[in-house]
Amino acid sequence: MSNASASTSHKTSTIFLVRHGEKQTGEDPQLTEQGKNRALALANTLSAIKLDAVYSTQYQRTEQTALPTANSQYLKISYYNPRELAEFASQLQLNSGAKVLVVGHSNTTPKLVNLLGGEPGTEINEKSEFDRLYIVTIFAPSSSEKPAAQVSTTLLKY
Prior knowledge:
Elements: H1 4-7, E1 10-19, H2 33-45, E2 53-56, H3 60-72, E3 77-79, H4 85-94, E4 99-104, H5 109-115, E5 132-141, E6 150-157
Parallel strand pairs: 1-4, 2-3, 2-4
Antiparallel strand pairs: 1-5, 5-6
Helix pairs in contact: 2-3
């Protein structure tokens, strides 16, 4: 038997990225009822996918958006610094084969999509757009092949 299949193995990573749900006003606002319902809808949308991790910034609105998904998947929320997106993108790219959810903000989520090699599309409307779900798929060749990874981006509404 040849081990050629081992040398051509690939790892596909899938990163789901969303902005937090609708928020109240204030310095570190919580979600509104509509935002809480959106967080539940996100958990339902991702329920058929076995996630390996859930990431959030340390703001109430992002934690509250991530929590229903984390709870339904029996995962703890891991935190990232939205001011260090390049480092976080590198960390995500090292998790070859992982499926993860990242909850961020209207200004950080498209930037992170771009840093992962994806297409962020148009700017997120700060006041009214809370339903954008990016799916960034990174198809990485085996380490012995060393060509660049292929990245695709799917943009959905949930």
